[in-house]
Amino acid sequence: MPPNVVMMKRSLSVVILTHNEERNLPDCLKSLAGLDCDIFVVDSGSTDRTKEIALAAGAKLAEHPFENYAAQRNWAQQNLPIESGWLLHLDADERLTAELRDEIAALFGPENSRRLAEADGFMLRKRTIFMGRWIKHGAHYPSYHLRLFRKSHGACEERLYDQHFVVKGKIATLEHDYLDVLCADLDSWLARHLRWAELEARELMRRDADDNSPRVHAAPFGNPIERKRWLRNGVYNRSPLFARALLYWFYRYILRLGFLDGKEGFIFHFLQGLWFRLLVDIKLDRLRRPEGASLRRTAAASMSAAILRQARRGSESFSALKSR
């Protein structure tokens, strides 16, 4: 490189989590075209073409065993050689709309320098696509997630399921959507929710959470994420087991017009709003019984071991990434 050429550090980095995502990753990466950003793909043992696709697209590839989403996302922030000040977190089955991509690109332009300087994080509006259909009703849209923030100000809360990023500072909201494309394979979708139901039940049984770890503040008059957490903790979780799942489905499908989402909406609201919530309650009921005590101790031990493994692997994985 000529001595008078100075490489400018990019303002934004994108972190994408993957595991056997050869079907989804190309569209996710394609949706980032036009953004001046570094792309990091954190893979957890893919056996398909996921890693090949990431490298061919110019992404920086890191490999790290998967414990849970929170641990994987926080490991990425703490160990990847990220030089930019801002992070955008995505999963492989998520992608930016062209409008959101252009909005983010403009956000890092000189004309928006003041707006960027005054914020520490931005909430993005999620549009769920299930079996090819946009799920617009049933209180499922708009749904907001905090995915774009200053690296020094944000982290993922340490929950086994339903994790959100927490940002210390001022939070603003972007206008356009990103897509969460679900159910290319219904069997995989069901298998994931079987696993997530177990994690959610264990999360609800936890009594030893670290008070110093980042947590979403539950507030009835806060931002959309805080209001949703308040409804979950203050209303839903305090309602009777089993009955609450049925009432929640009735609220979504009937009162909030979920039936307007057609056949795909019926399947989605039934599976995600009733079947999954019933499954969580079944598993929670089992854990609350006396014979569930050993399961709770096993869950707590597994969580502690996961944190220790994450810390031990950090320096080794960082060295491996730098050598690529």
Provide the descriptors you would attach to this structure in a database record.
Spore Coat Polysaccharide Biosynthesis Protein SpsA, Chain A; 324 residues; two-stranded antiparallel sheet; 9-stranded mixed beta sheet; alpha/beta; globular; 20% strand; 11 strands; disordered N terminus
Structural notes for this entry:
By secondary structure, the protein is α/β, with parallel strands linked by helices. The chain folds into two domains: 173 residues, Alpha-Beta Complex (Spore Coat Polysaccharide Biosynthesis Protein SpsA, Chain A); 119 residues, no CATH class. It is built from ten helices and eleven strands. Strands 1, 2, 3, 4, 5, 6, 7, 8 and 11 form a nine-stranded mixed sheet that branches. A two-stranded antiparallel ribbon has the order 9-10. Helix 2 links the parallel strand 2 and strand 3. Helix 3 runs parallel beside helix 10, helix 6 packs parallel to helix 9 and helix 8 packs antiparallel against helix 9. It is globular. The two termini are 20 Å apart.
